[in-house]
Structure formats: structure tokens, C-alpha cells
Amino acid sequence: MSWYPLQGYRVVDFGSAWAGPQMAHIMADMGAEVIKVESRNRIDYGRLGGAASAKDLLTKTPEAIAATAPDRLELNPVFHLLNRGKKGITVDFTKPQGADLIRELIRRSDVVADNFTPGVLDKYGLGYESLAAIKPDIIVVSLCFAGHTGPLKGTRGYAPIITALGGLDSVVGYPDESIPCGPRFAYGDHVAATHGALAILIALIHRNRTGEGQYIDISEWEATTSLLGEPLMEYIMNGRIQKPKGNRDPIMAPHGYYPCRGEGQWVSIAVKTEEEWQSFCQAIGNPNLAGDERFVDRYSRLLNQDALDKLVAQWTASYTPFEVTEILQKSGVAAAPFMISKEQYHDPHFRERGIFVEVNHPKNGREVFYGIPWKLSDTPGEVRSSGPLLGQDNEYVFKELLGLSQEDFEHLVEEKVIF
Amino acid sequence: MDNQALSGLKVVEYGSFVSASYCTKLMADMGAEVIRIEEPSKGDESRDYGPFPDDVPNPERSGLFLYLNTDKLGITLNVRTATGKAILGELLKAADVFVENNPPRLTSELGIDYAKLKEVNPRLIVTSITPYGQTGPYRDYKAYAINCCAFGGVSQSIGHYWREPLTAPLSQGHYQAAVSGAGATMVALLARDVTGRGQHIDISEADVWATYHVGFGITIYAFGVKDNLRKGYIGGGWTYPARRVIPCKDGYIALCAPQLKQWVKFVDLMGNPEWIQNPRYRDRHAMEDDYPEEVDALLAPWFLERTKKELFELFEKNAIPFAPLYNMADEVSDQHLSERKFFATLDRAEVGVLKYPGAPYKFSKTPWSLERPAPLLGEHNEEIYCGRLGYSKEDLVALRRAGVI
User: Fold this and answer.
1) How far is residue A334 from each of residues A119, A331, B131, measured CA to CA in Å?
2) So what's the ipTM on this one?
3) A246 and chain B: CB distance < 8 Å anywhere?
4) Is pLDDT at A141 greater than 70 in this prediction?
């Protein structure tokens, strides 16, 4: 049996939807025992979202579906992806006995992670202060849209709102269109999830060294904004507000996506140094281009980018993205094909690096997940299982870990505390 | 400060531009000691990148360099010389972590690949951040940020599907790789407490995009659902407004309302205009999938009469999850961020007092903090070479003349 780098650490995961679950699955990938807490009164609605059954959200609550068609909650592969490698329990912590069970579990844990709107856990006596009273070195990571203090602390926001308020959307778009168009995937959630995992790990290092636990407040908004050093410094230094520049770069030209043979086929090309420019002109079979006064140095190329882009696009149009990539890479020029998910899935580079993995889910059968981009040579992590069925580990957690008798366990199930 | 979360951790950074620098900044701002190595006399390329105060280029005044190198010690060292390489070895003997983002071929050429460094210090954790990683057929391909966006699959979800795709701008991929690099390094440190061994961490920027960011697309694809990422959605079934941006009087508002009650409340706030009664505007699936621009246009007049601030307050009050697109000026002047002290202030030679974007997380006991500004080129040569490694001042002169430091 392999040994995982976070083996022996236990995380209680109250996460729902995207950012919280993703943060905790990173811990699970690295070997921590992550216990996901739900109840039939509070189901992670990620069980419904995405591919399997988004339409149900309009007409039914997840709780109603749990009561009438529980199988529907076990089919969303994206939920399984975000909750991979975790154990799953169902306990209603809005009931005092439920909150007691959670406290017992946390007494035996290292980390508590949640992405509730501020105040939810406090309401049931599960806030940081109460938990630190029973487990002084506990680490609590609380992630929400705008953080847990300040005038906007209660604000809720879905992923597109994070990059909007976080500033990124205002710098993404086509310069010839008036309306910016930020990333359409849940960038802000992913940013918060990875920063959250990093914060947990830093806090564990500190705790192991000093015995001190702590509370960590993460604002998805701030995590996103902290990655905009360059345009923020531009504003702070010069009062200039950066606008979308499309694929243009301040120092590289050509720089962009160029059309290739076939529909929806593009290749990215980026030329930075003089040496790369000379090689580029050779590689495309047009050495005279290097001497063209419009493109003779970096300054000229940046100035005449429209004309340059047209010439590059004329050349790329007769090749596939992979042909362009190969021709240019041979000459030391940066180029890469524009890829969509299914192309990535079949790509030999990603295959060799194990970037996609297969797991088996009891209801769905074979599922394909992204693998682990944190590649550790000596103690790698592993995607050990798909996401948990609702309450699948109740017996293990309540009986084995917390030591409930069969009788007490059945009683709590009957009382709908374990529910 | 010696009571920060990573106090006592010793990190050496040898790389260029954003990814390695941001990775070690994440550690430095939490208390680690980071020694940042730069090329003698010319320094890191981020020093030439800007932005510069009043647009006057000066390697000691580049905003990007200043931001990426807070809380670090700076030395110059030419690792390509035999003496320089030996000095690097001395630094790494006393270090816990080495972060680098050089092309794999170059680290082998220089003799500073993991196999070699492991001999110098078996407890050392070496974190390599590169476009395509240390293995795989494209390992040695050259790539800038846009190329990683292309291959990493992230551009399939930026821009309109009927136009050229867009890159994630402003080195976002470098930052993402840096965060992953820091996280993986922390895992390796925790593992070392048990195993006593260091290890090599291989982070690829393309991998990070292809996994945490758009990797769910693979799950959807493998599950047999139509891959529609270029339209920005997975599997369909979304309702208007899933992700619309509408101009208002002084900017733009992002709209996203998956729950029916949120949409109903918003329509109510608009005063239930007549068009909403038309069955064409009752089917939120069709509105999103088939004619979202048409609906945008119907909303436009109401938005154009109102400012970002007015609208945000109104939406806040009514629990409607719409928000303005903040530009950089909005961020710097925002009341919420200012009450949370998001921006920190540092005084530094050459640029004076400046604000800096702040903590990505708030630790209650061992807070993130900016203690020292980015180093001047070679600022800590004497402190490190004489103070730590025992060279004399005369040695420093000789090393400088020989182009080693």
C-alpha cells in the first residue's frame, strides 16, 4: 500500500457547489481523509448542477428530490469529480444532537473547511471560537464571496460575479468591441479553491511547528484581485485604467491566435526576441520578411501588428494547428495548438503525464477526471475514488470513528439526526 | 518577523519573470526567508517590464517586479560560471526549498537539475515550474503564457465562439502555476517531516489549466454530453442570464441568476416591463441558448439610466447576485476592500511610498504581511555572501570583477 503525503490528516468538509469542494478534494488527492458533511435537509446542490439535471433546479429543491427520487442525486459526474476521494456522511447539524456529533468529529480532526455565507456555522455553535474551545489547535478555513468582515461580507455571488467584482473581467475582451468578455469558466472559484488549499497547508506547517491552530478567512474576490499585480500597479503608479487588449502583448509581436486549415482550428504563436523573429521568418519560408522595414525590430512590429497579423494568418491558414506548431517549434519559436477538452483527452503529452484518470462510480460506472497537477516525485498523491454517495460512510464515521453503539446509531437515524 | 506561519523556512529562487517569483512571494509574505537570485548587472526581465511611474523606464521602478518580490532578499549571481554554481550549492546546502522556472534542458546544461541538487542536499525540495513540465513529448517546447492557454484548453472558454479565441491576459497562467507550485511545496514539506527526504516537484502551467480550471470539460466529454465549452456552458440546461454583461451609465454589470426567484425579483425591480409578458421572454432556457443578445437589448435602457454604484446597492439590498465589472480604479477605491485592509503600503528607495495589492487570505494568528519591499539589484549581496557564507569584502570585489556576482 502506498503512503500519501497527507496521510493521517483529517478534514471535515462542509463545502458545497464548486470552490469549497474543490479546495477539499485537493487535500484528498494528497492523502488526507476528507469527510464531506451533508444531510437530506442540506444537500450540496452540486449533486444536481451541470450535466445531469440542471433543469430540475427550476422546479424542485435538492431536498425534495432526495425525498422522492434519491437516485437522481447520485448521477452528476462533475459533482463526483469535485468530491473525489472523500468520505460522505449525512448529519443534520441544525439539531443539537447533530451539532454534538459534528463537534465530536472535529475533536478528532485537523481541519474544518466551509464555504457557507458568513454566520451559518456560528448559528449552530460550530463557529471557530466554539470549536477552538474543544479542539484548541483546530484549523478552520472559511471561504466566501467577499470575506467575513467588511460592509459587503454577506454578499453572495456566483462565479461570474467573482471575476466581475474581482477586476479580471474588465481587462478581458476584444479591443474592437465595447463590452468586455471575461472567462466563461468558473475562474474565481478555482482561484479561491487553490488558494484555500495552500492556506490550509501553510496553517498545518505552522501548527506542526508550534501547536497553534487558527482561523483563516478567504474572500474569493480578494484571492482573484491579488493576481492582478501588473494592472493594479499601473493604476496606483500612473492612474491609468487598463482596458481589454484581446490577444495583444506589450512586448511580443506577433502574438495571438491565428486561423488554421479546418473549421474552428487555431494556433497560438508568440514571438519575443529578435532571434525568435529571425527564426520565425526562416521557418515560414519568407526570410525577406525579417528585412521588411515595417517589422525590422520589436518596436516596428508592435507598431504594425495589424499588417503583421494578416501576413501570419495567411501563412497559418494552409496548415493544421499541429503542423504549424511542429514547424515553428523546430526553429525555436513558441507555438501551440488551440485545444478543446476532447482533443486534450487524446493528446499524447497529457496522456504521458497522467493528466486524466479513470475511476469507477457505483451508479455511473466509468468516469474520467482530471488528474493531479501537483506532481511530487517521492510521495505523489492519487485520485483514490469517485465522489461519495449520500451518507455512504455514516457507519464508519459514527460507529468506528466516534464509537457510537449500534443502538445509539439506529436511534439517531430514527430521530433524523443522522439523516 | 519570526512569529509568522513560515518563519524559519529557507527558500532560494532562481528563475525569471512571473511564475517562480510569485510562487516564492506567496511563501515570503507568510514569513519564509526567500533569497532571490538575479543575473549580475541586468537583473530579472520583470524589471524591464513596467509599469513605471510616469512611464519612465527604470529597472528599479518596475511595478511588476516590485509587486512580485516583496519580502525577499536579493542577490546577484552568475550560475553559468563554475564559481557561481559552487556558491549556489553552498546556498542550497542551507536551504529547505529551491524554486526555479528554467527550461528543463537549461537546468541539465547548468548541472542544477534535481538529480545533481539531491546530492548537494538530500532534504532539499526542488520546485520546478515550466510550461509543459519535466516529462512528456512536448517537454522542451518553447511556450509563453498564451501558448499554455491554448494547449491547456483555457482559451476554449474565453472569447466568442464565432471569433478568434482569447488568451487569459496579464500572465494569469503564470500566477496559477505559482499557486500550485507553492501548494505542492507545502505538501512536500509536510511529507519531509515524516520521511526526512526532500523531493522534486514538477508543475506544468498547461497541466494546471487543463486540470483545476477546465478539466471538468473532460469529465463532461467522457460522459457523452455535448462539449460546448466554447460557448461557455457545459451540457446546456442553463437559464438566462447565465453570464451576461450589460452596459450601464458608467460601466458594465455582470448578470447571473440561476434561481428563478432571483430573476423574478429583478424583473420586479425593473417594474415588470410589458415585454416580459410575451411568452418569448418567459422561456429562460431559450432566452439563454437562442437569443440572449435580444434580451440584453431589452434590458439595456433600464441599465443605461443607472450607475454601477446605484445598481450594485440596489442588487445588494434585494439579494440579487448581480455586480458591476470593477476596473482597477474601482478596486483601489472600494470601501469594502479598504475596511478589510486589502491594500498594503510600503516605502521603498527609488519609488517611495506605494500601495500594493494585499493578502489572498487572512490568517487570524499568523497574518500575511508585507514587511520589506522588493530588493534593489544585489541589495543583499554583502549580507548573504559575507554574513552567511563567510566571504570577505575583498572577495566580493573580486567576485564582482570576475562577473560572478
Assistant:
1) 49, 9, 11
2) 0.96
3) yes
4) yes
Residue range(s) in chain B whose domain bears CATH number 3.30.1540.10? 244-331
Percentage of chain B beyond pLDDT 70 is 96
Residue B126 grid cell = 526542488
Question: What is the rounded CA–CA span in Å between residue B297 and residue B317?
Answer: 25
A:289-328 residues touching chain B, CB 8 A cutoff: 325
Q: What is the pLDDT of residues A226-235, one digit of tens each?
A: 999 999 999 9
Helix (H, G, I), strand (E, B) or coil at A128: helix
Q: Which fold has domain B10-212+340-401?
A: Rossmann fold (3.40.50)
B180/A194 touch (CB, cutoff 8 Å), yes or no: yes
Report, in angstroms and rounded to the nearest whole number, the Rg of chain B calculated over CA atoms.
25
Cβ <8 Å between A378 and B214: no
| pLDDT band of A225, cuts 50, 70, 90 | very high
Q: What is the mean pLDDT of chain A?
A: 93
pLDDT for A53 beyond 80: no
Q: Which amino acid is at A391?
A: G
Tell me the CATH class for A10-226+353-414.
alpha beta
> Out of B191, B220, B340, whose CB is closest to A379?
B191
- Residue of chain B whose Cα is closest to the Cα of A189: B213
Average pLDDT over residues A271-289: 95
Separation in Å, CA of A410 to nearest CA in chain B? 37
pLDDT at res. A47: 87
| Residue range(s) of every CATH 3.40.50.10540 domain in chain B | 10-212+340-401
Decide if B169 and A349 are in contact by the 8 Å CB cutoff. Answer: no
CA distance B109 to A33: 41
Cβ <8 Å between B164 and A374: no
* Residues A362-389, mean pLDDT to the nearest whole number: 96
Asked if A13 is an active-site residue, the reply is no
C-beta atoms surrounding A392 within 10 Å: 17
- C-alpha to C-alpha distance for A22 and A9, rounded to whole angstroms: 17
Q: CA nearest B83: which of B398, B386, B378?
A: B398
| pLDDT value of position B328 | 98
Query: Which of the residues A13, A56, A169, A189 is marked catalytic?
Result: A189
C-alpha cell at A232: 493594479
CATH 3.40.50.10540 residue ranges in chain A? 10-226+353-414
Ranges of beta strands (E only) in B27-91 are: 33-38, 72-76
Cell numbers placing A307: 499588417
CATH architecture group of domain A255-339: 2-Layer Sandwich (3.30)
Are B212 and A194 a contacting pair at CB < 8 A?
yes
Which listed CATH number (3.30.1540.10, 3.90.1150.10, 3.40.50.12780, 3.40.50.2300) goes with B244-331?
A: 3.30.1540.10
Say if residue A309's pLDDT is above 80. yes
Query: Residue B330: which of B309, B359, B344 has the closest Cα?
Result: B309
For B303-335, the pLDDT digits (tens) are 999 999 999 999 999 999 999 999 999 999 999
**Single pTM value for the model:** 0.96
Q: Rounded distance, CA B165 to CA B153, Å?
A: 11
- Residue B50's contacts (CB-CB under 8 Å, 6 or more residues apart) are A234, A250, B57, B62, B63, B64
What are the tens digits of pLDDT across the range B167-199?
A: 999 999 999 999 999 999 999 999 999 999 999
DSSP B301-341: HHHHTS-HHHHHHHHHHTT---EE---HHHHHH-HHHHHTT
Q: How confident is the model at residue A52 (pLDDT cuts 50, 70, 90)?
A: very low
**Which residues in chain A touch residue B149, judged by CB atoms under 8 angstroms apart?**
268
Tens digit of pLDDT for each residue in B233-268? 444 557 889 889 999 999 999 998 888 888 999 999
Strands of B3-152 (E only): list them: 10-14, 33-38, 72-76, 97-100, 125-130
